[in-house]
Design a protein that fits this description.
The protein has 161 residues and is of the alpha/beta class. Helix content is 25%, strand content 26%.
């Protein structure tokens, strides 16, 4: 059986960024959630980069967050100066990014969106993100990931009590 491959749109994005040599890892089991990905890879949950789409006053925005943390939508709202921020519906995620939830990469999307990256990602030398397919991931230095995603570094994770 042929292992799953990165999504063609993501592969093209890598080529466009000069990253066509970037190694990806495929897993027969899905890596849709941060916990599934961390277990399959054998890394810390916080080393997973979640790519989450929110709607800020109806406009899609991508938030990159470490796998061990949750996004504080109020902090995202304040960062964007938006009236309301909500999780985007699955159809909006697919329409905006070209990928299904569980396989959304941090860059290589169908449409250009504003990208926020939580500083928590910088706590690691390497983070792992989806490659457009819920069975394929790739490693990258978080600073490089933020740069390639054209993201703004922010503090938008929920604070623990």
């Amino acid at each position: 059986m042929t292992p799953p491959a990165a999504h063609p749109r993501f592969t093209e994005a890598l080529r466009a960024l000069g990253l066509d040599g970037l190694a990806t890892r495929s897993f027969p089991e899905a890596t849709r959630t941060a916990a599934e990905a961390a277990a399959a890879i054998g890394c810390e949950l916080s080393q997973i980069c979640k790519s989450l789409i929110f709607a800020a006053d109806g406009t899609p925005v991508l938030v990159l967050m470490d796998g061990a943390s949750r996004v504080d939508v109020e902090r995202v709202r304040a960062e964007l100066g938006a009236g309301e921020v909500t999780r985007a519906a699955a159809d909006v995620v697919r329409e905006t990014t070209g990928y299904a939830i569980g396989g959304v990469p941090p860059f290589g999307h169908r449409t250009r969106t504003r990208v926020l990256a939580d500083r928590s990602l910088l706590a690691h030398d390497v983070v792992w993100a989806a490659a457009g397919n819920p069975h394929v991931v790739f490693p990258m230095a978080p600073e490089d990931l933020v740069e390639h995603a054209d993201a703004t570094l922010v503090d938008v994770r929920e604070r623990t009590a």
